[in-house]
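[job 4417] fold queue: 2 targets
>>> target A
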Amino acid sequence: MNVLGVCNPNLEFIYCLAGWEGSSHDGKVLRDALARPNGLRVEKGKYYLVDAGYSNSEGFLAPYRGQRYHLKEWGGGNRPLTVEEYFNMKHATARNVVERIFGILKMRWAIIRETSWFSPEVVTLLVNACCLLHNFIKLEQGVDTFERDYRDQEPEQHPSSVVEEIDLVSGVCPSQSWTHYRDAKAVDMWENRSGR
C-alpha cells in the first residue's frame, strides 16, 4: 500500500493519505491528495521537501536527479563537489525526518510492519489510526520512548518547518520558474556554506 505522509520537524503528522495501491506513482497520489476537499494544502510561496519520486514543482522541492543524494553517500569524509550535490546533501538531511517518523510508527505499531491479511479498506483505516495515535501520544506524553529509541539509532536532523494557509498550490506541474527557484536556493546554500 502506498502511504503519503506529510510531517513537521517535530515528528508529527500533518497529513496522511493511505489506501493507494503500492504500485501507484507517487505523483498520482500527491495529485489526489491536493484534489480532495479536505486534502493536503500548501500555501503559495511555501514548500514541502519531497524525494526524487516527485516532480520539482511549485510547493514541492525535489532533489537534483543524477547527483549523490542519500545520507550514506556523505559518510567517511565524502564532501559535496558541486552546488547540486551540496543542495542534495542538505535536502536529504532535512527530509530525513520523514524516514524517522515512519521508522517510529513501525516500531510502535506491529500491525503495520508486516503484510496484512486485512482488506485494503481496513488497512487504510489502521494506518490512519496509527498516525493519529502517534500524534496523540506526542501531544500527551512528555517523553516518547519510541522516539528516543529511534533517535539513539540514527542522528537527529532539523528540517525547515512549513506553514499552510491562504493562497494554495492547486496542482503538481513542473515549471522552469520552480527549477530556477531551486537552482537559486542551491547556489545560495553553496556560497554560504560553513567550513569552505
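>>> target B
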Amino acid sequence: SEALAHELLCQQEGPSCEYYLVLAQTHLLKKDFSKAEECLREAIQIDYLNPNVWAQKGHLCYLSGNLSEAKECYERTISFVTDASEIHFVYLRLGSIYLKEKELKEIAEAEDALSEANALNNNNAEVWAYLALVCMQGGRQLEAEQSYKYAIKLELKNEELLQEIHEVQRMVGFGNPSF
C-alpha cells in the first residue's frame, strides 16, 4: 500500500486529467489524431471513470472513421453519467452510428439517442436531419416531414447528410413536404 500511496502522490503532482483532455481537444481540432490519442490514453489512466474522457475518445474514433470503437466509447460515456459536457454530441453521433448500421433494434436505439440530443438542444439541424431519417425508415411520414422542415429551417450545413436524406425521400416516396 506504500507503493500505491506514492503512486497517488505522484499523480497529484503530475498533470491532471483535465489538462490531458484540453490537450486532446486541441489536437483533435488540428486533426492530429495520434497525439490526441496519446493524451487520452494518459487521461484514461488518471481517471478511468471520467465520462468526458470517453466522450473525447469516442469523437476521436468517430472522426478517424472507427465507428465500432466510437460506439463503444459513446455507450460507455452514457453509462458513466448523464451530465458529461459532451453529451449532446455523444447522443448525436451515437444516433448516426446506429443509423448507419441500419439494424431494426439499432433504429429504435438511434431514435432514443437522437431524442436525448434533441432534448438537450433542439436548435441543432443535424439532430433534426437524423430524426427525419429515422422516421422515414420507420414509415412515419408526418414526423419525418416535420423533422425535415426543422432541419432546413435551422440551415443544415452537412451536404452529405442532406443528400442522404434526399435519397431516402426518393426511395420511400415521402418525407419532403416541398414536393
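[job 4417] complete. Note on B: DSSP finds ten helices and no strands in the chain.
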